[in-house]
């Protein structure tokens, strides 16, 4: 009978030849556990000397740990990362999801502008092509750490006073409910993995090669009329998504 704790289940291939970077990564994971969240790792040069490997081997191991969210860059060093933020796939806002985990959500406004809707956007919002829409782009933060970038499109005719009445660093869903009288009741959402563009990577503060989770959402009110189309980009090393399922 196969031992469930056999090395193959830890990522070691059947032929038993373990790549050097993977062996270093495994040893580094033990170091991370000892250091704990926020602990500063030794430099690449020091790690290479400790493990008796080339610096590029250490660099590759650290790259994988970075992608997995086990470590993060801080200044010119590398520290042990905390657990990933778990965001529910629901109509709850980003604010609610982050607060439930004891973190402080905030946002930084990049853009709030009026645009003419192209045919695709107009169809998704059920407005005429050329009608004005709001485009609001905000960097998402948790405990002042940049973790995502959100672009929201809305009909200007439906929310004519958005620029005047909405505080861009606050929850947009609370604004919709409390000030605009709109309750989001359903949504279509699609998730895919992408790489950030150079501009997006700069705004979020990540390397361009870091995988991102991209969410496309169209939300509707109780009458089934679309209210928003949202494109949300989340850091793959800092976020995971959860949902509840049941068999009816």
Write up what this structure looks like:
It is built from eight helices and ten strands. With 248 residues, it is of the alpha+beta class. It has two domains: 7-80, Winged helix-like DNA-binding domain superfamily/Winged helix DNA-binding domain (Arc Repressor Mutant, subunit A); 85-242, Chorismate lyase-like (Chorismate lyase, 3-Layer(aba) Sandwich). A six-stranded antiparallel sheet has the order 4-5-6-9-8-7. The protein has a two-stranded antiparallel sheet with strand order 1-2. The two termini are 37 Å apart. InterPro entries: Bact_HTH_transcr_reg (IPR050679), Chorismate_lyase_/UTRA_dom_sf (IPR028978), Tscrpt_reg_HTH_GntR (IPR000524), UTRA (IPR011663), WH-like_DNA-bd_sf (IPR036388), WH_DNA-bd_sf (IPR036390). This is GntR family transcriptional regulator.
């Amino acid at each position: 009978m196969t031992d469930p704790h056999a090395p193959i289940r830890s990522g070691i291939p059947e032929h038993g030849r373990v790549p050097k970077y993977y062996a270093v990564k495994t040893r580094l994971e033990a170091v991370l556990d000892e250091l704990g969240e926020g602990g500063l790792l030794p430099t690449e040069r020091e790690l290479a000397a400790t493990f008796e490997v080339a610096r590029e081997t250490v660099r590759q191991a650290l790259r994988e740990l970075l992608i997995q969210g086990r470590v993060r860059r801080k200044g010119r060093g590398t520290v042990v990362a905390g657990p990933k933020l778990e965001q529910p796939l629901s109509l709850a806002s980003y604010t609610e999801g982050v607060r439930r985990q004891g973190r402080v959500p905030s946002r930084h406004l990049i853009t709030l502008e009026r645009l003419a809707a192209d045919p695709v956007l107009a169809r998704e919002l059920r407005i005429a092509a050329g009608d004005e829409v709001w485009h609001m782009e905000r960097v998402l933060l948790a405990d002042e750490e940049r973790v995502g970038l959100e672009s929201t499109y809305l009909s200007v005719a439906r929310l004519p006073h958005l620029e005047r009445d909405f505080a861009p660093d606050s929850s947009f869903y609370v604004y919709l409910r409390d000030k605009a009288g709109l309750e989001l009741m359903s949504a279509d959402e699609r998730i895919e993995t992408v790489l950030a563009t150079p501009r997006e990577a700069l705004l979020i503060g990540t390397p361009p090669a870091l995988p991102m989770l991209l969410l496309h959402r169209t939300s509707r009110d109780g009458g089934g009329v679309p209210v928003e189309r949202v494109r949300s980009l989340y850091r793959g090393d800092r976020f995971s998504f959860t949902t509840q399922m049941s068999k009816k």
